[in-house]
Amino acid sequence: MHDEPQSQIPTETPTRILNRPTTSTTTSGDSPVPAVPAAAGPAGTVWFTRLLVVGLVLAALNLRPAITSLGALLEEVRDGLHMSGTVAGVLTSVPPLCFAVFGFTAPRLARRYGPGAIVCAGMVAITAGLLIRPFVSGTAAFLAASAFALMGIAVSNVLMPVIVKRYFPGRVGTMTGLYSMALALGTAVAAAATVPMTEALGGGWRTGLGVWAVLAAVAVLPWLGLARDRGAASHAVAGPTAGPAGPATAAPVPGLRLGRSRTAWALACFFGLQATGAYITMGWMPQVFRDAGVPAGTAGLLLAVTMVMGVPLAFVIPGLAARMRNQGPIVVGLGVCGLTAYSGLYFAPAEGAWVWVVLLGISNCSFPLALTMIGMRSRSGAGVVRLSAFAQSTGYLISIPGPLLVGVLYQHTGGWGLPIALMAGFLVPQMVAGVIAGRDRTIEDEARMRD
Fold first, then answer.
1. How far from chain centre, in Å, is Cα 314?
2. Which of 39, 198, 368, 439 has a Cα-to-Cα distance from 227 of 20 to 30 A?
């Protein structure tokens, strides 16, 4: 498996602040921590904080429509590009592959150009990829254009927790919940609206997919302003910070090796297994219902219900997790909901469809929980960026075979019994890894215990 980037992160970059630190503590929804700067900007002004919040929300809205819009129209895309079930499985495995490969590059790029500039470039890549891919003529070109958009999503995925940790260190749970909620909203809207928009625009799947480039283009605008804050942004990756895990420190423990950290590996496995379930759901769930006799529009709406469950819960769960010393009980609760949903899909997919998608939507909220735990398992901004890159990139590598295997099983068995059983099976090790990752310790603590 890959290890985390080893290059050192500079810590001396100065940054201006909006609010001067005090000796008081900040609670308000997260664990008590020393009061620290709420946000920083090129001129230390309030507008920067507001622009940052708008940028985070707009970026999060664009982190999944490239995937869920395709899931809603997968049958039409397969017919239009003459894909087999196996090739469609490869297509649904492209997101985690891109997230793993390009996610590892995010810390190095952020150190060189600043995370704001990289997220801005990511939004541009998403826009270009979504605009190009509907109008190519072959499967290979379609995959390449999709990969370009997913490259932008990958680097933004890794840098979101980093930006939150630096600029909102006393509000990790709240801010993680905010952009997780926006991410879930974008996911749900794309799933629900793609088929109706396609029909309204003339029934062509190419137009139905391409329209999402407009939303991505809007997200570029605030990041054009944030990208210019290179000095403060570089400090966001490296500088002192504090969070629910403990007091602020200037940098992680020297010689910190995430490949030797049990917590880092547990987080990577938990992240990877929850991503496996999420991308199987986004890529294949509408097809499960369509094969059970559910109309295409209703199947897309069912997927949207699964995704929209994450809107309120993605805001509630990170805040709840940040107040708890151990997040294991939340991990188990979400896993049980998923097991119940898959059991229902196995025995009565159409009859209880609305119940199963609600339970599955609750289970899929493991994603904001994983992001929150990444922010809580390190004491420093530098530690968070390395842990985020390691956990997400390694996790996405772990998740690659899942959607592909589902496609192969579906094609060779002609039904959904065995694929659904496989989906349920993934939840058991996910819960085990999540319980380990949820323990009240940091990667720096583990490094000191080894020394």
1. 11
2. 368
